[in-house]
Amino acid sequence: MGKLTLGCFSSLVGSMTLDFAVKLSEAAVRKGHEVDLWLSGNGIMLGKTKQSKFRDYSYLAGPIEELLKTGKFKVTNCEACAKARGINKEDTMEGFGIHSMDWYLASAFDADRVLHIGGE
Amino acid sequence: MPIKKLAFIVDKLPYKAETSRLALTHAISSQTVEIYLEDGDNVEPVLAFVGDGVLNCLKDQKALDHYSISSMEMHLKNALLLDLKVLVCKEDLESFGLTEDSIVMDAEEIGGEETTKVVPYDTILQEMDSSDHILYF
Amino acid sequence: MPELKTMEPSDTLDVLGRVCPYPLVLTKKKLEKMNSGDILKILCDAPASAEDSIPRFCEKQGCAMEVVKLEDKGYWEIYIQKK
Question: 10 Å Cβ neighbour count for A53?
């Protein structure tokens, strides 16, 4: 089995790009692969606590919690991008890592595939 | 002792979004990724500006004066100070009517020894081809 | 062995207001130019750098390090003795 590293910088709800990243993560984990998801820029919103579930809006907190339970999925917020947006450790969902940017490059180092989805 | 080559390709405008800024800071973070790796392992970054991305390299940016935000010029000079390989697409530069005189070519004033290289697109393509992973910003 | 924070630093690096990757990148660059045994004092207010990356770096390099969190001031003082 392999390792997929995803880098997603796109905003929560305002774009469907994060939804794509999460769906891809789910598919990879279902196949038995390991997935690292690095969130930077607006992507760090994915880790925000107290997200509400509405039918007409993306809701990714639930799928993320399920992915974390598999043990094959790691998700990390860029500390700088999060703090710049007023999101500190206490505002971040349980299970999210918070690291500096070199974490992403380290994840890419031993990944079989890297998909840098980028941002707005 | 594996060394993995990462190509950071930037084709977005400066300041319109934070994308190119994040490209530069992520590329710079390659200088410290070793803290997460086994001894001797490392990444080799190459930073290339193509398309609209070449405008990130313009000299005399005043973002700090007008917006109190660090300029792309500052990040680019830091990249050169840290010996990152920085490439700018010759054809895209010329399409904007720009030359080497218009862009940041060195970081001498802060002690940098590396210089920006203006190269044909084919050279950038070769760099991408020889990379283990491409991060397209 | 005296505590590093009580010893006179050879140099001080102020990275207050800077976030990743700069706190560690600038620390590394500064240390490269210092002599073995020199002490670098760093002022840093980025938690991931002060509590994670910089300590990791010191451990890898085999440098002695002390981190003092100044709650009232909102930043950390980090003392690193170059190996």
Answer: 10
Closest CA to C21 of B136, B61, B35: B35
Give the number of C-alpha atoms closer than 13 A to the C-alpha of residue B64, restricted to the C-beta side. 8
Scanning the structure block, which residue is given the tokens 């240390």?
Answer: C31
Active-site position among C20, C44, C58, C63: C20
How far is residue A53 from each of residues A12, A43, A102, C10, measured CA to CA in Å?
A: 13, 18, 33, 55
Number of H helices, E strands in chain A: 4, 5
CATH, domain range B3-136: 3.40.1260.10
**How many C-beta atoms surround the C-beta of residue A70 within 10 A?**
13
Using the beta-carbon criterion (under 8 Å), do A99 and C48 form an inter-chain contact? yes
Report helix angle C22-32 to C54-61, nearest 10.
Answer: 30
Bridge partners of residue A93, in order along the sequence: none
Contact B137 A118 (CB under 8 A): yes
Q: Say yes or no: C10 contacts chain B, CB-CB below 8 A.
A: no
The proportion of chain B whose per-residue pLDDT surpasses 90, expressed as a percent, equals 92
Domain ranges in chain B are: 3-136
Over residues C2-33, the pLDDT tens digits come to 688 888 899 999 999 888 899 999 999 999 99
Number of structural domains (chain C) is: 1
Average pLDDT of chain A, as a whole number:
94
In angstroms, what separates the C-alpha of C49 from chain A's closest C-alpha?
Answer: 7
CA pair distance B80, C29, nearest whole angstrom: 13
User: Does the active-site annotation cover C20?
Assistant: yes
Q: List, for residues C40-75, the tens digit of each pLDDT value.
A: 999 999 988 999 999 999 999 999 999 999 999 999
Residues in chain A within 8 Å Cβ distance of B20: none
B45: phi then psi, degrees, rounded to nearest 5: -90, 150
Measured CA to CA, the distance from residue B77 to residue B83 in angstroms comes to 10
Taking CB atoms and an 8 Å cutoff, what residues of chain C touch B64? Answer: none
State the Cα–Cα distance between residues A106 and B33, nearest whole angstrom: 6
